Please model this.
Amino acid sequence: MNTVTTAPALEADVAFDCPGNYRAATPSTLRCSKCNRPLAVKDAQRTPTGYVCPYYVKARVATFYTAGPKQYILAALIAFILGIGIGFVLQFVGRIGFFALILTLFVGPAAGGLVAEVIRRVNGKDRGQYIWLVAAIAMVIGAAYFAVLPALFALLAGSPGFIFALIPIVGLVIAVTTLVARLRF
Ligand SMILES: [Zn+2]
Model:
């Protein structure tokens, strides 16, 4: 085993020691820009400040996303409960008649934005990598009874009103898109 002596000056340059003690499987001239360990090309992850070892990325993701099960459950509950109300409102708006679609184009984004805002306030600074996904699914399930089922029944019944029953679904799709965009970025 080779003992590599590292100059103290070089060690001082290393600002961050990546956890996990990464070791390249093959000798490499490439080095992790954070911990300075030799870095195999196949493991290298590109960042704005240079190539880093896989452990650096994992450590950064772990410190950035601090949400635990509690935040996920809260996000799911909020999205589900508000989703029921949103489904009801979308169905109501969809029945107004001529202006239903235009109104839906306003209600959809507002509904998605509202859910995202409530989740963000309740969860505070705890961010979760997949909160957006959990919230989106919960909102769709919550809204399905009022916004999706009527269209399904109209379709099964071969009703000519089927096309109008689709309006709440359009609203829900817009709401979900807005929610995901607000929570994800
Ligand atoms: Zn590293």
User: Anything to note?
Assistant: Residues 1-12 have pLDDT under 50 and may be disordered. Residues 134 and 185 are 15 Å apart (CA to CA).
